[in-house]
Amino acid sequence: MMFMGEYNHTIDTKGRLIIPSKFREALGDTFVVTKGLDGCLFVYDNEEWSAFEEKLKALPITNKEARQFVRFFLAGAAEVEVDKQGRILVPNILREFAQISKDVVLIGVASRIEIWSKERFDDMAAYEDMDEIAEHMAQLGLGI
Fold first, then answer.
1. Cβ(91)–Cβ(103) below 8 Å
2. 30, 104 in Cβ contact below 8 A?
3. Radius of gyration of the chain (CA)
4. Which residue stretches of the chain are H helix?
5. Which residue, among 51, 10, 54, 2, has the nearest Cα to 26 in the 3D structure?
6. What digits encode the pLDDT tens for the residues 103-139?
7. In this structure, what is the dihedral angle of CA atoms 29, 31, 36, 40, given to the nearest 10 degrees?
8. C-beta separation of 142 from 133 below 8 A
9. For residue range 42-96, what is the model confidence (pLDDT) as tens digits?
10. Spatial CA neighbour of 77 closest among 106, 34, 140
11. What is the pTM of this model?
12. Which residues of 48-62 are buried (b: 16+ CB within 10 A; e: fewer)?
């Protein structure tokens, strides 16, 4: 399953967030939410999370950066369950990390979903330097 699309929602005062039905169909009733890069949260279905966990386990424990990387993703990870209204409870520690208080943007990013505070997403998604980024992606073999 490839996740794509952008959805705007709100999170209530108890930390409950509606997951778009298109995403829920692919995620199932339970899935994992964890700290993500760039100040957002990453959402993985159970199969993708298991594959990611295996990669994390394979990192050398003797490498300091590897240990920090593993801690970053696993310490805040939470298995969440969708309720009858299609909502999940986002743990407080994750809401604080992503600075999520009310307005939220959920985006599909191939193998995962990202949950952003609307303010952070708007700042990040200005796309003012996309021509320069596209040039760098071409250098990595992604020609458009």
1. no
2. no
3. 16
4. 21-27, 46-58, 64-75, 92-98, 118-124, 130-139
5. 2
6. 999 999 999 999 999 999 998 876 667 788 788 788 8
7. 10
8. no
9. 999 999 999 999 999 999 999 999 999 999 999 989 999 999 999 999 999 999 9
10. 34
11. 0.91
12. bbeebbeeeeeeeee
Number of C-alpha atoms within 13 angstroms, CB side, residue 119? 5
Hey, what amino acid is at 25? E
H or E segment to which residue 31 belongs: strand 30-35
For tokens 């964890």, name the residue.
34
Query: Which amino acid does the sequence have at 126?
Result: A
The structure tokens listed for 141 are: 């073999």
The secondary element (H helix, E strand) that includes residue 115 is strand 112-117
Q: How far is CA 28 from each of CA 32, 43, 126, rounded to the nearest angstrom?
A: 11, 12, 32
